[in-house]
């Protein structure tokens, strides 16, 4: 980056958000981090960053238009990187209402505030402003055994979560098409890495294993996801923000398709090496097959050739490298994990329909 820029990141205390705030800070951006601090928002994830100048934390809701407008007028950012979202499929099955409010209503209100601010900017600030919306490959639905999602794949969301993200994607593109707001959309594959809330597969398995808990595998364990190390994803986001073409979509993947059962077994093998069980047995003995998630998509796979060809981005870590780093980080940061597990989340299973909302 040739000169210091101020950017507004929403959801900067979440998993991907905290990693993005850290990378943006390292790259010389001044970051204004707006986060509501819901259950998955954790300021402890940014203690090392907030100890230095160059980041500003604001606790607040993207649905609060007056707050967002105040932040835009006060800090006058060069753009918005929008990551604030409810993101866990199982939680969306139990309680879709929060997903509708945050992911759809919140995105709309953020867009409305951004549009007003953007219109007020003089040139060249107006020409350089960007609104980057960070989304998911889950909006494309379930893929068969062959082929890949890309920027032209039709939408076919299957869960309340993916439906809410699909709606927010459409809203962002509509603001670009109708009002001229310079928007960008990214759809990424499954992220993993440091600071991930332990309800997600990889941290759940690591933390359950070392606590001698069962390692739940949904269905037959054959559901396939493309895995992307979070720091590689964050590099892609900054590249799109800085050099992507307004109005364009970029799919971001890790070129690492794995079944859920492969993931669990790989984690067990790494733990057998780094943190052996006291009885000498393998952690794989804790694997337990449980009833599948309702509406569980079978396979996701990303074609990331566009962002590679146009912006020169490619993942830097292999899955084996990234997974081992993630296991090591989790073992070394159990205080961070314990601070979460002493709250309202105790690694219980969600999304079974038993506790789902009814209209």
Plain-language structure description:
- With 359 residues, this protein is of the alpha/beta class.
- It has a domain at 6-199 and 228-258 and 298-318: NAD(P)-binding Rossmann-like Domain (Rossmann fold, 3-Layer(aba) Sandwich), CATH 3.40.50.
- Helix content is 41%, strand content 16%.
- It contains 13 helices and 12 strands.
- The strands form 3 sheets. It has a 7-stranded parallel beta sheet, with helices on both faces. The chain has a 3-stranded mixed beta sheet with strand order 7-9-11.
- Helix 1 links the parallel strand 1 and strand 2 (30-35).
- Helix 1 packs across helix 9, helix 8 packs parallel to helix 10 (260-274) and helix 10 packs across helix 12 (319-332).
- Mean pLDDT is 93; it is low at 344-352.
Structural class: alpha/beta
Label the overall shape: globular
CATH architecture of the domain at 6-199 and 228-258 and 298-318: 3-Layer(aba) Sandwich
Q: CATH superfamily of the domain at 6-199 and 228-258 and 298-318, please?
A: NAD(P)-binding Rossmann-like Domain
CATH fold group of the domain at 6-199 and 228-258 and 298-318: Rossmann fold
H and E order: EHEHEHEHHHEHEEHEEHEEHEHHH
Unreliable stretches covering 5 or more consecutive residues: 344-352
- CATH class descriptor of the domain at 6-199 and 228-258 and 298-318: Alpha Beta
Helix content: 40-55%
Distance between the termini: 49 Å
Rounded Rg? 20 Å
Biggest pleated-sheet summary: 7 strands, parallel
Q: Report strand order across the widest sheet.
A: 3-2-1-4-5-6-10
Beta content: 15-25%
Give the helix tally: 13
Tally the beta strands.
Answer: 12
